[in-house]
What does this fold into?
Amino acid sequence: MDHYAVVCCIIGSFISIISGYVTGVMSGAMLFIQEDLKISDEQVQLLTGIMNVSAIAGCLTAGHVSDYFGRRRTFSIAACIFFIGSCLMSLAVSFRMLMAGRCVTGVAVGYALSTAPVYAAEISPAKTRGSLSSIPDISINLGILIGYVANYFLGRLPLAYSWRAMLGLSALPSAVFAVGAVFLPESPRWLVMHGRVDEAFDVLQQLRATGDEAQVLWSEAAPPEERCRGVGVWGEMFLHPTPPVRRMLVAGVGVLSVQHLSGINGVQLYSARVFKAVGIASRNEILAANIGMGLVKTLFILTAILLVDRVGRRGLYLCSLAGVIVSLSCLGLSLTVIEHTGPNQDVPWPWAAIASVFAFVASFSIGLGPITGAYSSEVIPLRLRAQGVGVGVAFNRVANAIVALTFISLSDAITMGGAFFLFGFLSVGAAIFFYFFCPETQGRPLEEIEEVFRMGWRERQHIVYTPFSAFQMR
It folds into this structure.
């Protein structure tokens, strides 16, 4: 593995750590905000979900900004927006000011989610692209874990300062990264798209171990028809897409759209309510349980990074969804029983519910979490990649926002157990979609993946898929 490419992916994914932090820290901070500002459950729900709504604006503009200014400058722009949003939230003296800061932060989240996986995919060698493209996702979850830890320790401060310290902590790393991102190498494929041939070749030589390998990748990465500046992308995607482009968009945008139908944010953002429902009442115990959940997520994403380039995207993703469906069913059943009998620790149901939460988080993190961003960045062609991924992430944020904005109301309407049964049913639909519309991409250079999607539906029926290998023709 080329160590320079690894270092670049890790540094570029620092923006994802910030994005994960501002997401995860709100789960615990909300306990203190609700007590300090005396806000209602409806306001809690709105404050939790509004970031995903404003992230849609970031997603839909990030692709154009990234195509025009470059990937690394877009990182700097996102970091500056994070800095402004963090300062607004930490200085908030009212619910409205807090909402304004949360909305600004959401725009930065949209930029981060749209740009980090594209950058990682574009600078990674084909043989390790799955692992390196998953680094932004593990960075998000590392940020979430850091947010949980910050909740636990900063929660010991006086009430008026605790949640402000939690929300403002991301300002300093945002300012540092805004400056530091400009020292990253630009994506060679972005340089190719802008006709900056010599610069692209220099970066490729740095990213690959040998000049020969760089020369081979250069010949693959620089087809003349792709040397554009993102002009006409929306028309090619939506007004007159070719059959291969249409299939690639369905796959790339589709996997991003269905990711949050599993209801992961029902657990991630409302973990305090879920743990309270199973009988964990103390604030410190809830925050400690959050840390445990964050550790499980991080551990299983690390496992996924080690496996994805060995066993393939399809096998890992479908196994992950199978675990999600089973764990959600067990969680729904456990919560339903507890809702009727009460959280009596002398019977196994509360423990079964807690185990199901951790099994759900582990199953999501082994495939559905890390593979989604990597796969969508792979299957969308270079000339459409930045804006296509932006559209996909916008749909992802819509699904995320629906879960975040309705989880409390949905739990009140059909019970919390019923909500998780519903998420399990939707996950079955996600598995069916991925099985039929998303071919294997393991080990293929980005420039060759389009060939896979040139095959029509009938031709693709002759592809033999095995759980842990790339496809073969009959």
Summary: The chain has one domain: 3-473. The beta strands are 463-466, 469-473. The radius of gyration is 22 Å. The CA atoms of residues 459 and 473 lie 10 Å apart.
